[in-house]
Every structure is written in structure tokens, then in C-alpha cells.
């Protein structure tokens, strides 16, 4: 049955969007300031209008059907564009209760969030921040679907693709800072007393930080170009975890140099220059073009700039 868009209640799409984001009718009702029966009724009306089931019951809430899964990115993108077109041209964080949704690795979070929240506190801001796990080096799908407002971190392949596509791509990026990788190990590691050679590096056991869980990273690509490999003993998804592991045993790990002081392990770890060049580590901000006219998002982007500049080495 074809959908008559002229008679479709667009408020039902907003309810659907929030239920999908929360994965729960109860939490969606709280966020929308509605009762649970009202949310359920709105979903039923939307299902009747579209002639398709959008959601099914799950052990811990609801989950989308194949149709609902396919529809949601379009709904979320359209609602986001409408919201940005209609919102005021100024943003006051002391009044606006907006939620900023970010994704970043713990290295970027350790650098940015303490200073960011200090600014929020100093302003008495009513807006607040949600940080969601970074599960991949390519945050473009999350940004495109509207799941997050900004991705902050080192995304070399994604940024290269954006540069190649030019202004036609629906995403933007801004370089906030740059740094380098170092090899970290415990102070009494057998390799800590001398410069780190390529042979010693490859012969050692390593802790790899991989957000996706794949046991292959930038260092491994650089080693492959030299026809060398290394032994990965452990793969984790946080730099902080990797630092604590190598502080306790004879493994090596590769970290952003700027992150090492943030681990709280400076008295137990030493850093050594890498005998292989994995490239510069960049801190970039990525966002969707739908936020280009948003005063709130431009305000937050300016705070990222301030924090990165203040943290830059002299």
C-alpha cells in the first residue's frame, strides 16, 4: 500500500527516531516526556501508516525489523537537517539543554574532555556531553546516520577520502593537532637500557591497540613495507589498558607520545623512538554538513580548537 505523505504525521517519525536511538520504549518515553502507552500508540500509528512493521520486542527493549533498520538513517538525517534549518542563530550553553554526542578513543578523550568539561563548569552550562565508544577508524557511517555530532581522533583513511572527494562529500573535517607515536615499555624492560633497534622491536612481544579488534595496525603496515612482522601477544581497544599491561610485563606497545603523561604511569614507563615510521598521528574533528549552520555545533568546534591549541607543545 503506497504511503500518503501529505497525511503522514511527522511527529511519529520523531518518536520512531528516539526509540531507535534508545533501543527502549521506556527510555524513549522519558526522553520525549511522554507516557509509555503514548509512545507505543505512536509507533502503532506509524506502522499502520506505512503498512510495515518497524520494531519487534527484544529481551532488553526493542529491535528494528529489516524495514525499520533501512528507514532509520533516512529519518534521522532528514530530522537533523530540519532541526538545523529551524534552530536559532545563536547558542547559549547556559540556557540550551542540548546533548552533544561525540565519539573518540581514550587518548583523544584524555586530552580534550578534562579541559572541555572545565569550560562547561565555568560557564554553568546546561548542555551536556555523551561520549560513545569508538569501534572503528572510520566514523563516517556514524556521522552520516546522525548517531554522533563529532568524531575526534586519528582517522587517516577517512580524512584522505574526504579530501579526495572535495566539497561534494557530505562531511567536513578540521585538523586540531598533530603528534607522533612512540614505543612504551616498563622501566626495567630488557630493551629499556639502549636505543630500540628494528630487530629487537620485531623480536619482542607487543600489545596492539585496535578499536575494531583486528590484529593489524599502522605499525604493521609500516613493517610490511620493510618485509618485517612482529608478534602480537594481546589486542585491546584502549591505549590506557595497553599502558597498564606493559607496565606489568615485558611487552611493548605503541602510543601517541602526548598520551603517555595522561596514563599516570610516567614513573613506571619509558618511551623510545620507534625504529619504523608509522606516520604522524593527527587529531581531527569530523562532522556532517548538516551542522554547518548550527550555532551550537560551531560553538563546540571552537572549544575543540581552543583546547588543542592550549595543549600544543611550546
Description of the structure:
With 314 residues, this protein is of the alpha/beta class. It contains 11 helices and 12 strands. It has a 5-stranded mixed beta sheet, sandwiched between helices. Helix 1 (10-22) crosses helix 2 and helix 1 (10-22) crosses helix 4. The protein is elongated.
Layout of helices and strands, plus pairs?
Elements lengths: L9 H13 L2 H8 L3 H15 L4 E4 L2 E4 L1 H21 L12 E6 L1 H18 L4 E5 L7 H6 L4 E4 L2 H10 L5 E9 L1 E6 L11 H6 L1 E5 L8 H8 L5 E6 L2 H8 L4 E6 L12 E4 L8 E8 L6 H17 L3
Parallel strand pairs: 3-4, 3-5, 8-9, 8-10
Antiparallel strand pairs: 1-2, 5-12, 6-12, 7-10, 7-11
Mean pLDDT: 89
Instruction: Supply Rg.
Output: 23 Å
Task: Identify the strand order in the major beta sheet.
Answer: 4-3-5-12-6
Helix amount: 40-55%
DSSP helical segment count = 11
Shape: elongated
The succession of helices and strands, N to C, reads HHHEEHEHEHEHEEHEHEHEEEH
Question: How would a textbook summarize the main sheet?
Answer: 5 strands, mixed
What class would the helix/strand composition place it in?
A: alpha/beta
Number of strands: 12
Gap between N and C termini, in Å? 65 Å
Low-confidence stretches: none
What's the quick description here?
The chain is of the alpha/beta class. It is built from eleven helices and twelve strands.
